[in-house]
Amino acid sequence: MSLDELRKNLSAVDRRLVEMIAERQRIVADIGKTKQTSGTGTRDYAREKDVLDMGRAQAAEMGVDPDLVESLLEMLIRTSLESQERDRVIAEGRGDGRSALVIGGAGKMGRWFADFFSSQGFATTVADPTVEDGPGVFNAWTDAGVDYDVIVVAAPLAVSGRILAQLAVLNPRGLVFDIGSLKSPLMDGLKELQSAGCRVTSLHPMYGPDTRLLSGRHLIFCDVGDPAATAAAKELFAATMVEQLDMGLEDHDRLIAYVLGLSHALNIAFFTALAESGEAAPKLAKMSSTTFDSQLLVSEAVAQDNPHLYFEIQNLNKFGLGPLDALCEAAGRIRETVVGGDEEAFVELMQKGRDYLALRQ
Fold first, then answer.
1. Which of 80, 105, 260, 321 is the most buried if burial means most Cβ atoms within 10 Å?
2. How far is 219 from 202, CA to CA, in rounded Å?
3. pLDDT at 260 over 80
4. Quick check: 172 and 196 in contact, CB under 8 A?
């Protein structure tokens, strides 16, 4: 059989694969509708395990790489869950004609929330200084008014604090919440809203603006003294599979200093060391290894993100220096073990890391 004929046969197989994926998606849509009708949860971890185990077993029987089949099935499952979650959010339509204002709605996370509310049937208005006035869009948030059922403050941290304080004076009737990565710069504004009798709470989405599936993602809720407002905010996400975490307003920044501050600093230090490695820099950019590639992947995402936001997370957090000092100390200890040829101490550091990381399992 010639090369052209073989390629023709391969194309026919590829078409059948696409047809089978389309058929699978149709079945998935029917399953999603049945789950909505019966009140069944969107995600079934036991069923997912059965599908993956069955796929690996069949792959082994047919002489196909089980890892390849598992990766393919995981991608299909994830796509199916995205579709079911989106359909459920739309079907339950918690907006039901209600209105939402997203201040900072042209930013990355602001757009995510604007799209989220629109998908639920909210009449969504965006206010952002980077846009021109138009239908449902305002350059100045004060021109948009405050007569909304939900107001989301998604502006930069320093600006958000001022906006929250101004909202307290205007005393809106609806639910108000911020989505700040830090709470210290917002504390005064949040407290002023609470003192004014406004329905206010504070959120922190632990996911990025490109997130399509909320399953396995965390959304932090910090109560500001109004449990009913926090409950109302949680209800907005009830149709999703996001994992809702309660966290004290006073505890938030101390923990986030490690979760965000430390991880950001580590990656910035990594790509800074590479970029400033002198003549090795262009050669290192083309090098590859399993660990190096994995670290580069994370670091590249950090490097492409908003540097002003990252600086705010480091600079505005009163707990921020602790993790940075710990990072410097850890790097110093590694250097000491290497310079001193202390293999035992080096092994001990790695063992401590294994023991700590085992806590996540």
1. 105
2. 11
3. yes
4. no
pLDDT, residue 45, reads 64
pLDDT in tens, 289-303: 999 999 999 999 999
* Greatest CA separation for the chain: 80
Cβ neighbors of 94 (< 8 A, separation 6 or more) are 120, 121, 235, 236, 238, 239
Token pair, residue 341, equals 């040829």
Distance of CA 354 to the CA centre of its chain: 26
Rounded to a whole number, what is the distance in angstroms from the first to the last CA of the chain? 51
Cβ contact 268:331 at 8 Å: no
Please name each of the domains of the chain with its CATH number.
3-91 (1.20.59.10), 93-247 (3.40.50.720), 253-360 (1.10.3660)
Q: Check pLDDT > 90 for residue 201.
A: yes
User: Token pair for residue 242?
Assistant: 């996001």
Q: What is the reported pTM?
A: 0.80
Q: What sign for the dihedral angle of Cα 335, 340, 343, 349?
A: negative
Convert the pLDDT of each residue in 138-149 to its tens digit: 999 999 999 999
Rounded to an integer, the average pLDDT of 120-138 is 94
Q: Which residue has tokens 């911020």?
A: 178
> What backbone phi and psi angles, to 5 degrees, belong to 174?
-90, 180
